[in-house]
Design brief:
Layout (H helix, E strand, L loop, with lengths): L42 H25 L2 H24 L6 H33 L10 H26 L5 H41 L8 H7 L1 H29 L10 H21 L2 H4 L11 H8 L3 H7 L13
Helix pairs in contact: 1-2, 1-8, 2-3, 3-4, 3-5, 3-7, 4-5, 5-7, 7-8, 10-11
Length: about 350
């Protein structure tokens, strides 16, 4: 990540390079146009976003403790806290766009936050499959977090490496700066591929589940079918689909934003950033919070007061063996772990 002025701006001379290490506030030679963002961030919008993410973090954590949905709640809460910090930092930049620590905070937080939020999404699919019918999934339920969580973190690591290369370029090594930018873009592209793969596998399972439960003879009911036809389950699945779509749009936007390097025209267009980055992630977090699984899909809960299947297993005479083997009495893989 370069902390110098954008390439092509006329401010740099052999004696002075405007950058976050040489400018501390906006002046005649440290103009706002020479910052990486190129504008004063809108203070009101960023305060609104910081409050929105902060509320989502508090509510998600509270519901998570109440309903004991640990893994999901920790991932979403951590992501929301980072997003809150990032937009609080952008609010500071609205007063002084050359505030170096605020600039670095918003860059790191807003890149890292959605990565943690996606982890909550990956954990959700595992439990949906485990509850409805593992046999309809292309892979065993535990595969999804075991594959997608490390893949998601890998995308972040690649972006961090690219940022380090770009930062090492300093003021004059434009070639190294471009290499760093390409690595960052590679990490973002990989994240889109990971999300797209997740979406395809989710769609395959849900389409199979729809066909499977429609084929049931009239009047025949199972716990799985009752869960599938439950209105709360339907609302929960639609909410997760909406959150997924918002996060995918955000990642695609990030590719376009970074394609031109730091300080390009898209990066310096605040309305597109607010709509396609900020509000896409906020919409996802609001859906994750408003349709928290402990309330809308209790099978993810670790509390036997909330999760009927968990309660039945612990009360059943043969529940201990099923618990150890990771199966329910119907032969489906048990909802366990995160």
């Amino acid at each position: 990540m370069s902390t110098t002025a954008s390439a092509g701006l006329p401010a740099s001379t052999s004696q002075f390079h405007p950058g976050y290490d040489t400018c501390t506030k906006v002046t005649a030679i440290c103009r706002v146009e020479y910052t990486t963002l190129g504008y004063y961030p809108n203070e009101g919008v960023n305060i609104f976003l910081a409050i929105g993410f902060g509320l989502c973090a508090i509510l998600t954590l509270g519901i998570g403790i109440w309903k004991r949905t640990w893994g999901y709640s920790i991932a979403i809460t951590a992501g929301c806290i980072l997003e809150c910090a990032g937009y609080a930092a952008r609010a500071v930049l609205s007063q002084n766009p050359w505030q170096a620590s605020a600039f670095k905070t918003q860059i790191v937080s807003i890149i890292l936050g959605p990565t943690l939020i996606c982890i909550g999404l990956y954990l959700t699919l595992k439990h949906i499959i485990s509850t409805l019918s593992p046999s309809l999934s292309p892979f065993r339920p535990k595969f999804y977090p075991l594959f997608f969580v490390p893949a998601d973190v890998s995308c972040l690591v690649i972006q961090a490496i690219g940022g380090g290369i770009a930062a090492a370029a300093g003021k004059d090594n434009y070639s190294l700066l471009q290499q760093g930018n390409r690595v960052i873009i590679a990490g973002i592209v990989l994240q889109v591929v990971v999300l797209a793969t997740f979406g395809i596998l989710s769609a395959i399972f849900l389409l199979r589940a729809k066909k499977h439960f429609r084929s049931f003879p009239e009047g025949e009911e199972t716990q799985e079918k009752q869960t599938w036809t439950d209105k709360k389950t339907k609302m929960f699945l639609w909410a997760m689909a909406g959150a997924y779509s918002a996060l995918l749009i955000r990642c695609i936007y990030r590719i376009a934003e970074m394609a031109g390097g730091w300080g390009n025209e898209i990066m310096q267009d605040e309305p597109s950033f607010v709509v396609l980055e900020s509000f896409m992630v906020l919409i996802a977090c609001v859906l994750f919070t408003g349709f928290a699984p402990g309330v809308w899909f209790p099978w993810m809960s670790h509390s036997e007061k909330v999760n009927p299947r968990l309660r039945a297993e612990r009360e059943g005479g043969g529940g201990q063996q099923g618990h150890e083997m990771g199966e329910t009495s119907s032969g489906n893989e048990k909802v366990v772990g995160v």
